[in-house]
Amino acid sequence: MSEFTIDELVRLMRICAGETEGIDLDGDITDIPFDELGYDSLALLEVFNRVKHEFGAEIPEEMVGELKTPRMALTAVRDALAATAG
Question: Which positions fall inside the Carrier domain (predicted)?
């Protein structure tokens, strides 16, 4: 499986919750908090549900609220993928 990238995360964010007007998800959003990007905890739960189904990386529901930025989310998904791979 290929590495989970910011592009994959942004794609899932758009699918699950759309895009907030005035926010450019194509820019460098890696360290911008999800709430500033217009994504609440419910939207993030949906994103991580899609991650589980598409990539097989399960992020516990209680951990989702701790993932404040896309960088934190990428790290969590990559760690989960590494754990399932080996």
Answer: 3-81
pTM to 2 decimal places: 0.89
Q: pLDDT for 32-54, tens place per residue?
A: 999 999 999 999 999 999 999 99
Q: In angstroms, rounded to a whole number, what is the distance separating the alpha carbons of residues 39 and 2? A: 26
Give the contacts of 50 (CB within 8 A, at least 6 positions apart). 12, 15, 16
Burial class (CB in 10 A: 0-12, 13-18, 19+), 46: middle
Q: How far, CA to CA in Å, does 18 sit from each of 11, 12, 31, 37? A: 9, 9, 19, 11
At the topology level, CATH places domain 6-85 in 1.10.1200
